[in-house]
Predict the 3D structure of the following.
Amino acid sequence: MEFMSNLGGDGVDHPSLFELIAQAKMTEMLSPALRYVYAQRYPRYLIRISNNYDEFYAALMLLVERHYLKQWGGSFAENFYGLKRVPSDRPLVQSSSTATKAPSQNLSSTNVNRSLAVLVILPYIKQRLDHYYSRISGGGASQLFDSNERDERELAELRSATISLRQKARIRLRRIFRLVYPWAHFAYHMSEVLFQIGYLFGKTKYWNPWLKVIDVEVVRMNAQDYRNQFDSSGPKLSTSTSLMDRVARTPLVLVQAFFNALRVILPMSIFFFKFLEWWYSSEFARGSGTALKKRTNDDDVGVIASPKRLAPDLRGIPLPKSPDTCPICLRSPIDNPTALPTGYVFCYTCAYKYVEEHGRCPVTWEKVNGGIEGLRKVYIAVGTGR
């Protein structure tokens, strides 16, 4: 085990690959843990944060990571695992046992800004690109069902004379992005894997390509680093100063105490999130659900009534006489029937274009949350007539 724990580490200075992957996984688990907390606590007041969670999380981590990089010389997760960042051109100091890096100073502003770009901004951009690709490609459903309808619709729009040049250019760019992005996604992750393999076998001192781009490497903290951190842990109130000076320094002390508390709060939130994840997938939760279901049946609770049908709105289009007719194009039978969350069924092409343009149900005039992602195809069993 001692051999395995030192794989990829260059003596006592460089951490093992397993330490680096562990701190990276900790950062990945932090986002869903915070999202769970905001989704469960005070949803009425935190709805704006929940709707813009990616931007909120990026701004929060920008502040947290900036503080840790300037104060401790490493990111939050790196500091939790006793790691720090140093410039790659720092000189070596020869000792009786091994050659180690010279005592580190605080990272320069350039190194801090570059590290923030790699730690916060780059993952945020990658996440937004993933969401956009999932939205325009159909997500996992596109792997199960034929996507010829989407391509045919886009080609028809490109041939249409009513579509403006700007809209046609947008469609072409969307098609190019949908074609190129999977390869870019593959290259992004494959480059990280190759650097990790190279770091594991001692071929490079960077465990991911972005550290090489910003010319920074990750090393272990030494005893002097811990002493320096303890001595400069932040401004403290002193009885030797005047009352006004102590009042003026109080906000700095509170801010420092807040960031120090994050060293405990954030890891604990991750552990709590993983515990809940295990609990809801365990036999205990399933057993509790079975018992609750049994008690419900014993109490002979009545069947919950189906929701009321949404009536057509005067601002919407009128309903045809036959339920097999599309309310938009009046085609009968409905071609490729697709249901909206309001319960009304249309042709897929008609529903897609209408919701994409207006964002509402054509009949009830209710807003369709999620836009075109709220469309659901209706599959009719052969021979049933339903």
